[in-house]
Design brief:
alpha+beta; Alpha-Beta Plaits; 9-stranded antiparallel β-sheet; 22% strand
């Protein structure tokens, strides 16, 4: 589908193809070189007396737009048009300016400005240095390495809250920018605001350059959050799962009440039953309310939380997440009593994978005392069983919820002077995990019986795979077909229609992955929102270059010097 930006881009290419030959001839070069792709740009750089390696910048989406503006302006200068007005004309309207230069203007070629005989002003020197630094940093950030911060406790041991890391874009091949017109070195928001840092009226198709290798099982992968296609305009909720919040809000709307007591079991069950009677009706009501600036209900924010509305995010501007790749395209994945099985074979956990455990002590202790005895470093790891996430440091108890590795569980059990017992806090098979929380977020059996410790099986889609579709398995593939591969999916009279055609099968267009956190009981991962499409993959976590703790997440703030320049495994 052609849009105005694409029309302007193709028109500019056509304009240059028509005009460059005449421009070259007036600059003393052979006219025919203007009509040979690649050679014409190389010759253009020669008459501007610019290095050949600028050609490499011209093939980088986003950067090439900046380079074309620079080259058009320098062409104006080379033909004696050196006023500010003339330079703006060539930079902003090259379609007109280049045609006039080639066919209506007899300006003599005098060559680029010679700065060897004239000292550049300090503002100009600084300006050129800044432009060069921004272009170089953008190229490195887009195609080689990008810095990220681990803000949540998902990859315990190899990564912790407060780790600053570099992600290798070359490991799987860098993606060319799909939304190239953007403020340099910024992801999706202007710092300190909720305003977009990009414009989405000009988009490029998905393309991935060759990489050093393919995604491997247990890689620490950075990716664009699949459920981030719609974002809630709110500083706190922006990176959270809009779809789950929409479901919570729709259930609240089904309760037909403005009261906040959604914790009342009878009222909550009645609301869920009413919601299931017509899900689309209540979801539409909730979405309309959110578009008007209020979240009807969320477990994180309560009732009628004020927001700035909703916005749609392009793929490459969705929030960044980091998880471990446990399932590859074509795998069958199942979790049995916390053990991941791939194609019916148990998968060994990553080192320091953490689970929730019930710790029973022989005498009451505070959270801080428990943390000091067993070497725990985060508030997330130590909770009073009776208080959930409340961060009370002075209350004493004999019962705690401890998030830790199995190795630490063994150490706890060996400390018989303090510990009475440690019980793995496993959720029994078939018990479910809350209303519509687990992917594929369906109330149909068997999906409504899955939980974080006993899940599946699910078959991870692979490119070219033909999936037989039924009403029973459609929830697993609905989002793949609609959101990730751009089809219109409908169910009419018990039959499945894709793009208006009745379908009993579907051919998968790209590879998908299954991502899970190492902190298994405190990770929002594929168990909750499903498959990660290949075009969402950003890169592989390479190493941490800095790490620090803070008072909100840890017992004491400070730098963790032992984690500096540590590789991610």
């Amino acid at each position: 589908m052609f849009t105005i930006p694409y029309i302007l881009l193709y028109l500019l290419i056509l304009t240059l193809f028509i005009c460059l030959g005449t421009v070259f001839e007036r600059a003393g070069k052979e006219k025919w070189k203007g009509y040979v792709p690649v050679l014409n740009f190389f010759t253009w750089l020669q008459i501007l007396k610019r290095p050949w390696w600028w050609l490499l910048l011209l093939i980088i989406p986003g950067v090439n737009l900046i380079m074309l503006i620079i080259m058009n302006v320098e062409t104006a200068i080379a033909f004696g048009k050196r006023s500010t007005k003339e330079q703006w004309f060539f930079g902003a309207l090259p379609w007109v300016a280049m045609v006039q230069l080639a066919f209506k203007d007899n300006s003599e070629y005098i060559g680029p400005r010679d700065w060897s005989k004239k000292k550049k002003s300090q503002p100009r020197e600084w300006g050129e240095a800044i432009v060069f630094a921004v272009v170089a940093a953008t190229v490195i950030r887009t195609f080689f390495f990008e810095a990220f911060t681990e803000g949540l406790f998902f990859l315990s041991g190899c990564m912790n809250v407060g780790d600053y890391l570099f992600v290798s874009k070359m490991s799987y091949g860098a993606k060319s920018p799909m939304t190239p017109i953007s403020i340099p070195l910024v992801h999706n928001r202007i710092p300190g605001t909720l305003n977009d840092s990009y414009v989405d009226w000009f988009k490029m198709p998905y393309f991935r350059m060759p990489g050093f290798g393919d995604v491997e099982r247990m890689d620490a992968m950075v990716f664009n959050y699949p459920h981030g296609d719609t974002a809630i305009v709110d500083d706190f909720l922006m990176g959270h799962d809009y779809h789950s919040i929409l479901t919570e809000s729709a259930i609240f709307m089904a309760a037909d009440s403005k009261e906040s007591n959604m914790r009342d079991r009878t009222r909550a069950n009645n609301a869920r039953a009413q919601y299931l009677s017509n899900p689309e009706k209540y979801r539409s009501m909730a979405r309309e309310r959110m578009e008007k600036g209020f979240v009807p209900y969320s477990g994180m924010t309560g009732v009628n939380h004020k927001i700035g509305g909703l916005k749609v995010r392009p793929i490459d501007k969705r929030e960044h997440y980091i998880k471990r790749c446990t399932g590859l395209p074509g795998n069958k994945l199942e979790i049995k009593n916390q053990v991941i099985h791939i194609d019916d074979v148990p998968l060994e956990n990553a080192e320091n994978t953490q689970f929730s455990n019930l710790l029973y002590l022989k005498k009451p202790l505070t959270r801080l005392e428990v943390a000091e005895i067993f070497g725990l470093h985060s508030w997330y790891q130590v909770k009073l069983r009776s208080q959930g996430k409340e961060r009370q440091t002075n209350d004493r108890s004999k019962e705690f919820l401890i998030t830790c590795s199995n190795n630490l569980v063994a150490e706890m059990r060996a400390n018989t002077s303090v510990v009475d017992s440690v019980v793995n806090n496993i959720i029994p098979a078939g018990s479910g995990y809350g209303f519509l929380k687990m992917f594929p977020n369906s109330n149909l059996a068997p999906f409504n019986k899955w939980n974080i410790d006993n899940y599946g099986p699910v078959n991870i889609p692979a490119e070219g795979e033909v999936v037989n579709l039924t009403l029973d398995n459609l929830p697993l593939y609905k989002r793949v077909i609609e959101a990730y591969e751009g089809n219109i999916l409908e169910v009419k009279d018990g039959k499945i229609f894709i793009n208006g055609t009745e379908s009993t099968s579907y051919t998968i267009k790209q590879n998908y992955y299954w991502l899970m956190g190492d902190n298994r009981h405190n990770s929002a991962d594929s168990r909750f929102w499903g498959f990660v499409p290949e075009d969402h993959v950003v890169g592989r976590a390479a190493f941490t270059w800095m790490s620090r703790t803070n008072a909100n997440d840890h017992f004491e703030p400070g730098f963790r010097w032992d984690r500096m320049f540590k590789t991610v495994k």
